Amino acid sequence: MLARINSVRLYLRGKIVAACKAIYQSGAPIKGTAAECLLKEFSLVPTLNTFIERLGPLGLDLFPILVVDLLHEFELGVFKSIFKHLLRLLYAINHEAVILLDERFRLIPSFGKGAIRRFPSSVSDMKQRAARHFEDVLQCAIPAFEGLFPDSHDEVVRILLFRLAEWHAIAKLRIHTDDSLDLLSQALRRLGQQLRRFRDSTCSAFSTVELPGEITARQRKSANLNLAAAGTMPSGACPKSFNLRTYKLHALGDYVNSIKMFGTTDLYTTQIVCTHFHWQGNKLYNFNPLSFPGRACT
What we know:
Elements: H1 2-24, H2 33-39, H3 50-55, H4 70-93, H5 95-107, H6 131-145, H7 151-171, H8 178-202, H9 212-224, H10 247-250, H11 255-262, H12 270-284
Helix pairs in contact: 1-2, 4-5, 4-6, 5-6, 6-7, 7-8
């Protein structure tokens, strides 16, 4: 097994080296045909990792060092994509259900000191929302979505939201034992089963398209690229299906090993770092970038 993994790595390294030679020696563009033919198939970039190049011959395996990121992989990744597809399903079933969903979230009061914050007037817009916003949505999603789907699909959606909240709660524990890690593995297994059930039963029963915000963003992008005049991109809503083949969903299986090796997720999550520096800069020191000497206002 190890020999097969090493052969794959050598194969990918050969593609990267060939692309670097084409760019730096032959003068090929980074986004040109020569480099794209070598790199695009496996989503590679024309750079070699210094740690692997220098310490790889000594036996260093870089991949176990890469820790998981709960904020970007789950809250802004897996759950956000599922929440967006739930909104697509509601638009496909009944547009008024989305309005009712926003109304239910507006009625939910805040709780604790920063535990659950007041929801915005329109949760379904998802404009400039931070990870804490989606964390709050996940914790309050079950009563908000209850009864919005047909009876044959309502239970599937509610169980899916419970499985997501269950896995998220265990993964964010700040102390773990062997028993809690076993619970995390079992929660992931149940979540995967429910995701496949949701895909096969609920998602396949409705034809879903882009959300209004996604249509606007795509049209803005096409206008910036001058593609709308050429007619290469449709102006209406494009079909959107539920996709389980993503890296962020696949990475959920690495959390148990990462916790065993590096400790609980609060020790290395980017959420703690961002929150600390935002609070330290704005609250403790009343940070103002224009107050530094030598910085002129233009």
